[in-house]
Amino acid sequence: AVLAGYLGLTLFYSLALKRAVFVDVLVVSAGFVLRVVGGAVAIDVPVSRWLLLCAYLLALYLALGKRRSELVLLGDGAGAHRAVLGQYTLPLVDQAIPVVLGATVLAYTLYTVAPDTVEKVGSEGLMATVPLVLYGLFRYLYLLHQHELGGSPTRALLTDRPLLISVLVWLAVAASIITLS
Question: Quick one: which of 73, 82, 91, 121 has the fewest CB in 10 Å?
């Protein structure tokens, strides 16, 4: 069912949805969530709704960053490169990104203290990772604006040492909290 949903979403995206401003990035983000769900189904692990929301918002944040990067890189020719880019403006995307960033941080914070999460972890200790998530998201925003690295979040992660360190520290802290709780 997840695979069928993903294939259907991809088909509708290719046929029409990729041409609709903001719908394009919302659909791309939904595709990432379906991948998370598919992975959970494949290994038979339940996934928290909060975690799905966090994955969705993070994917949306990165997709908007990619749109911003495309607008900056392509300039006035952005619409000729991809039709939907002609409907975006840099100020519009620059207003949307902080909204999604705030929603991502809020969703992650609520996830860390959600009753199901606290029960699985054994404490509210994951809340200690919120500043690390904030730093990582802010660092990416900095890279997006100051170094124009939004076109490839993977490249940004692998080439920016502070961003990579923040992810590794988050992993270590989260693993320690989960293990010691």
Answer: 91
